[in-house]
Fold each of these.
Amino acid sequence: MARCWLGSLAVLLLLALGPTNGLAAMSMGGAPITQTGKTAHFRLMLQIGPMETMYSKADAAKMHPTTGEIMVGGAMAMSGGAMIGQTGAMTTDTRHLEVHVASLATGKVTTDATCQITVTNEATKASQVVPIAMMYGVKEGTSDWHYGNNVSMAPGSYTVKVVVNGEPALFHVTIPKS
């Protein structure tokens, strides 16, 4: 219970800090990229980290995993993802991209947002629309509610466009070479 509370506190603290400046890059140890931003009505926290195993609620109830994500809605990426019972192309370039959404007015986590996420490689201009799954971390519980998926992102610079209930925000991130 204390871990869940501390995880929630960390997410809310990062959301409260406001936008970060400049580019963010994953550290050598694989720590997630974290950036914050906001729209007219929402505070956003973008995180990009190592690929996550995603479980349906039914699979999580049967298997009792200690890591990964529990999907509560939406779609899992068909390539580059790892979900119990499904196979896909998993590479070292597969990352877990998630966006936490909180109301600016109340500070509460928003669990009913309509989100769109588009990732554009700045060098090649190739874009991919991220299939949106609603999920939360196995360890953190529902206070970790977020939107996103496992996506293919080779080392390089990217623009991540997030639209929440029609309100856009842009993030610029760099995925370093391992």
Amino acid sequence: MLRLSSFLTGLFFAVGSSMCFAQTVEFPISFINVSPAGNKGQMFTFAAHPLATAEVDTALGEREIPSIPPPAGVFIVYTIPPSTEYLWLSPKDIRQMKPGIRFREDYDVNILWTGGRLDITWDYPMPELIDSAYLVDAFTDFPNNFVKVKIGPGTSYSTDNSARTRFKVLVWYNGTTTSVEDDRQEQLSVYPNPSYDHIEVNGVREGSVIGVFDLNGALLSEMKTVADHLTLDTSGLVPGVYVLRVVAPDGSITFRTVVRQ
């Protein structure tokens, strides 16, 4: 019940807002442990989306990988969600995007490594809806951190101190800006909504993959489009609220909510 309540809260907040963000706002950071025994690496993605909740949102790309703690000797990067009731490991942490305001989100990063050197790098442009981001240590306060590196393309941080296993990634999101890609994705339409036995999806790019998820994040059906229009059979769904995820050929993701009566 807590999961359903959290999802609906985020869902109706996003739908009711005058500012709509169609895509997940995200940027990946590379974590590599360099040692004589060999290099171990993991790409971790920090993200935000209006439909994200404080729990595991599998429809948005988060994954629950039991169990905690990981086995000894495993190199892994994970973040702690803002809750004391659960913990999960996932290559992506999605927080709720807050349309209409600027806000800071803190990601508490944990890195398990046992020696050698840790290299943290980022090589991609910062998304438009992010004003700035910093990698800092988890034990001092911003802006007077012992470790403080502004994240940007081509910059990096390295340490050979294996006791440094906790960092924070501070992200200043700009919810007052709508990107060009968001405007283009707003051409996607889904009707009738609510529906009974089918829905029509218009404005989708050819080659996109459309998935239908329930509120627990379970994938119910998935198909690839061959045109800019698709008819989805919803007659097998029980009445309720569902999430439609459209992954375009360029990797951009659009979400729509649909109601089966």
